[in-house]
Design goal:
Largest sheet: 5 strands, mixed
Shape: globular
Strand content: 35-45%
Radius of gyration: 19 Å
CATH superfamily: Tricorn protease N-terminal domain
CATH class: Mainly Beta
Length: 369
Amino acid sequence: MKRVGRTISGWLALFLMTACTSLAPSSSVLLPEFTTETNGRDFRGLSIFPNSEDWLFTECARDLNPEGDCYLLKYSLNSKQLQRYVLPAGYLYGNANISPSGSHIIFDRVPKHDGSDEMMNHSFDSGQILMMRTDGTDFSVLPISKGRILGPVMSRDEARIAYWRRTSAKGERHARHWSDGDVWEFQLRTGQDQLFAGPFHFFDGIISQYVSNDEVLLQTYATQSTVQISDYRKMFNGSEVYKLRRGSTEFPAPSFIDIQNASSPSVDKEGNIYLSGQQLPKFGSAFFRKSPSGETDHWIQPIFQPAGEINVVAPNGQYVAFMYVADGTSYADKKRAFGVLNLGTSEWQQVAIPPLQSSTPVIVRTALE
């Protein structure tokens, strides 16, 4: 199961973009060729099926509904076919992940709102987690109490689902500011829902995936306590990657601190961990691969503006998929595009997603239908 990128708070995204710009390679470094897309779309998140050929992501658009919708899409790299799950109306569907076996999709949703802070707060406080088979059957809402919940990922044995549960911070100015969160876990067999570890009161974060049945890999900027420590990031070379074990109450130190500003972790089926980061003064931004034995490989990144932190390795380890901001637009414009780094040839290539209007509908049904 490969993680989906989640919405990072605006100021943090700006920080990340500024960091990537300021850590550009020296003029002596030859950058790889990559032609960026100019016509971006509002893509969100990415999860790659175990076959390493099919992708799952969301697109928010007005193409099929003038009032706007967020659509859950499945795209095949081989056939170039785009499928669209026809889900119950009245909701905005967000972060989605494939189960480790590829049999199920888990994702979140909130009721539609009018954009006002009052209605957005009501919508976000009514979030739910859902599950269905990849063919659209057996759709169900999991019996988890509603709230600001998002980013579900499934354990390797497919018995549990970890997710973020967030609350409003004191003094919050806008409904989008979710700056007090923790990782929770729901057991599919027993229905038990409880804190996974902590509480740590994370400032922000993204759950990548389970690295074992008892441990999750995540990216987080800080906790409510560490964000107050001015030298905290310097202490760990800017790493935002953590391994969190179930039941732990002591917040762990970041991992992979030998890679400057390590972020966006994902794991292939051989246990290699892939990261974004920098290693100056030799070169600027790059994708890194850490083997289970600790060996490190890297691929220098061409110049493009990352769209948050969405880099996902294919389970077979043949490529890394990434999302970037379309050329000539800003992060706030929500005009994004996909690309892939072929790890065998070191080539950086565009991925052209077919128009939403051409997508084939997949009717979603409950177990009783």
